[in-house]
């Protein structure tokens, strides 16, 4: 998908620490829903050409990759999974939540491998699970992820369009990822801090201009975890 991205990844091949390796099978963290946000709707129900905020985890192992998390689409937060090659029988799945999310809500988001080729996403709000989203993976993809993945957490504004997404009115302000714990293949637990992995702020090579001022990002350490705060704003042309 095209768009602007703020990504923290466990992968950093230039650092020797094992925490930079593909050793993870799950992640659990807190997400603060942005203070304000908007999407551009699809032009038709099956056209999929809108411009959307997305807040999600990514799993990557060998040739397989999958994104799973929240998308603000058609004026509501929904759960989604997207992959070019890991999902069984499709490349995209999406479902509505059982309880609406509002600006500044804090939700716990867990994603983990289950049994029989399943990947789970649990959304927990106020101690209540408001969604258990389960997708089926291809057997080879499940095997690859089970052997250990790199994991990302991302805050993006994206589209299926090629270009023409800047200054459309899609945006989010002040989203937070924090208190994330990673589960390894040996079922040990690692606090996601700033001593490993990498931060990537970029866009796809999609014909649009790159304007770094459209993304703001800050990071800080709290209770042994790294917190990322980000905003991406396509609401208006920049004049300076």
Brief descriptors of the model:
53% strand, 240 residues, nine-stranded antiparallel beta sheet, seven-stranded antiparallel beta sheet, Jelly Rolls, mainly beta
Biggest pleated sheet: 9 strands, antiparallel
CATH domain fold name: Jelly Rolls
CATH class label: Mainly Beta
Beta-strand portion reads over 45%
User: What is the general shape?
Assistant: globular
Helicity level: under 10%
Give average pLDDT, whole number. Answer: 94
- The poorly predicted ranges are none
Count of helical stretches: 1
Give the strand tally. 16
Overall SS class: mainly beta
CA-atom Rg in angstroms:
17 Å
Distance between the termini: 28 Å
By CATH, the architecture is named Sandwich
Whole-number count of domains? 1
User: What's the SSE pattern?
Assistant: EEEEEEEEEEHEEEEEE
Helices and strands in order, then pairings?
Blueprint: E1 2-9, E2 24-32, E3 36-38, E4 51-61, E5 64-73, E6 76-82, E7 92-96, E8 106-113, E9 118-125, E10 128-136, H1 139-146, E11 150-159, E12 171-184, E13 189-191, E14 198-203, E15 215-222, E16 225-233
Antiparallel strand pairs: 1-11, 1-14, 2-8, 2-12, 3-12, 4-5, 4-11, 5-6, 6-7, 8-9, 9-10, 12-13, 12-16, 15-16
